Amino acid sequence: MEFTSTRDDALRVGIEQALNSGLAPDGGLYVPTRLPDFDPAGFEPGLGLPECALQALAPYFDGSSLAARLDAICREAFDIPLPVTRLDDAGPAWMLELFHGPTAAFKDFAARFLAGCLAALHDRAGPDRTVLVATSGDTGAAVAAAFHDRPGFRVVVLYPDRRVSARQAHQLGAFGGNVHTYRVQGDFDDCQRLVKQALADRRLAARLGLTSANSISIGRLLPQTAYYAQASLRLVPGATGGGPIDVIVPTGNLGNALACIVARESGFAIGEIWLATNANRTLPEYFESGRYRGRAGIRTLANAMDVGDPSNFERLEWLYRVLKSGDDPRASRIGAESIDDETIRATIRDEFERHDRIVCPHTACAMALLGRLRKRGHDRPVLVAATAHPAKFETVIEPVVGRTIEPPEALAELLGRPSRADSLEPDYDALVRALDGLANNPANR
Ligand SMILES: *Cc1c(COP(=O)(O)O)cnc(C)c1O
Hints:
Layout: E1 3-5, E2 8-13, H1 15-21, E3 30-32, H2 49-61, H3 70-77, E4 84-87, E5 93-97, H4 107-121, E6 129-134, H5 138-147, E7 153-160, H6 166-173, E8 179-184, H7 188-200, H8 202-208, E9 210-212, H9 218-235, E10 245-250, H10 255-265, E11 270-277, H11 282-289, H12 313-323, E12 334-338, H13 341-355, H14 361-375, E13 382-386, H15 394-401, H16 409-415, E14 422-424, H17 428-440
Parallel strand pairs: 5-13, 6-7, 6-9, 7-8, 8-14, 10-11, 10-13, 11-12
Antiparallel strand pairs: 1-2, 1-3, 4-5
Helix pairs in contact: 2-3, 2-9, 3-4, 4-5, 4-9, 9-10, 13-14, 13-15
The structure holds pyridoxal-5'-phosphate (PLP).
Pyridoxal-5'-phosphate (PLP) is lined by residues 105, 107, 138, 215, 250-257, 304-305, 360, 362, 387-388.
């Protein structure tokens, strides 16, 4: 399979280059030149996640040097439990629990897959590579965990100071070794802008062997299609009674939800896809008006979704304009709705009081949207993507439910370690100085 750029349909690169460089040379995002055409009947019933991922991802790697290693990469990356639990709700509904990986958020799947690919592509004799990642909280930890102690890689994490939870901040600075963490004095969009600028800076990228691990990397997007594929195979037709499953995805940068859209458009039995955003209304407004207006992100309780200019929007637009020959995404069974902080709190409280279930603030957005859909008479089977373990957002949840939340084991282990993050101004020259400083420090070799 070949890959092109959202900004230049004439570009053609193999998946190796798309993975290695993160961003296309013209500043666009890499996208596959076509989508696979799967028949769910071609997947063996009861297929495990790593096996399903191998089958669902193989077409993208066809003809590449990674094809022969894809099996091993999938076995390692997707070795994470993936429960699909029944929700007692007004209609048939399930929760896809994506938070049982080492850093307790869905991003573990894709970060581990990308790390496996980049490690397989890395020339051990060559210079070290620098993985640069902007995070609104969870990406940085997932990427750091996935690359921690991998020889030949250095990880640089940028997160917006004071805009992540105390546990998230601790976790981000707790890896040590080849992971370097900076608290940027700005918001997530500043972090993201710095990363994009660095990746587009060819001299810097070459000097530091820079690559991205943000959701702008195609190596993050593709593996996320695998869990939607497997969930649809598990639920359709048995549990749904034949029809496809509608999916609600908590959405910030549109990486996770776009993977769900790609899974549907490549043949898996997924029906409507609903994007649940927090008070950042860029996507809901786009789906209402057809006009896209990126802006600065505003702070909410669901901080991993505090995004005002979702980086993957460019891919969504491209997908429909080019691969779906100009279809309007808004006419393609995709909806988006915004959930405010008050509703997030009310939903967390309600889930706890009525169902004895504690959901993270992001998952609460999706649960609130499920409630709205049911009120409007939507009664078809729905899958809710649960994106993080509630223990990562204890500062939001504990006051609402009035009890403490124990972190899962892996998270507890990180929280027990010392943590360190240096302050960084939201300024490109400051970032370049920091990166060069790390690369030139023999202690970091
Ligand atoms: C990153 C994240 C999201 C948003 O995912 P996108 O792919 O950016 O849309 C939602 N919930 C949690 C817990 C996250 O960490």
